Amino acid sequence: MPVTVTRTRRDVVTLTGPETLTYLQGQLSQDVEAMEVGDTALSFVLQPTGKVDTWVRVDRAGTEVVRLDTDPGAGAGLRARLERFKLRTKTEVELAEGVEVLAVRGAEVLDGVPCGWPGTVGSDVFDPDPDALPSDLPVDATELDEAGYTALRIAAGVPAMGAEVDEGTIPAELGQWVVDASVSFAKGCFTGQELVARIDSRGGNVPRHLRGLVLDGPPPAPGAAVEVDGQEVGRVTSAAAGPDGGSLALAFVKRAVEPPAAAVVDGAAVDVRALPLGDAG
């Protein structure tokens, strides 16, 4: 994979206090208490119904400090959710919106945290030097804009808050790798556990699945219908121009459409594929 760097942003919620771990152990799907200082992992913050409130990366930053970062625009809702259930728990919740991040893909750098993308080596450097790149970054790294970074995200099959993930999303719809990376079925109870465990015990059987789309034309607009034999089977959630021409997209598609499959979006032929897309496009 070529080495790329993108200047982007994330929202960060930091919890500090002697009861931080105990509190988050019941709020997150990840086993926070099993994490050592310096460890990172993905996690869901779920509604009591088992649907997603927020998808986050967990950084065990200290013995009583945990940082949760998420896509820009999702931090305020995350903070509100954690404040609502905190009651008298001894932990403070602080939000920093739009924190600058240098997203490195194809290589790791010492000052970064693991990106968490499946099958992808990468690091995210928070609050990077605005005028310089990390000294241990390979010299052949290519700088990408947000559109290029979105194409990488789509190819890797990584969902984003506000696009693939909202309050109506069921974790299993996002893909088995997301559930495996974000949920501990060995820990004790956590909010929303019942639905996630029930679906997992049934082999992740849900009405729709996140799929990749590959097409020759320009990127379709989010919300565009995916059709098979004239019938709508899904909707585009994210799209971007591919690195080698054509376009890549993510879409929730009915489970009856097994990839690889042929479909149509806005009158253009598309290939429906399983994720990740790898080097497609």
From TrEMBL:
Example GO biological process: iron-sulfur cluster assembly
Aminomethyltransferase C-terminal domain location: 208-261
UniProt feature coiled coil, ranges: none
Keywords: Transit peptide
NCBIfam families assigned to the protein according to its UniProt record, in alphabetical order: ygfZ_signature (TIGR03317)
The protein's name: Glycine cleavage T C-terminal barrel domain-containing protein
Organism encoding this protein: Iamia majanohamensis
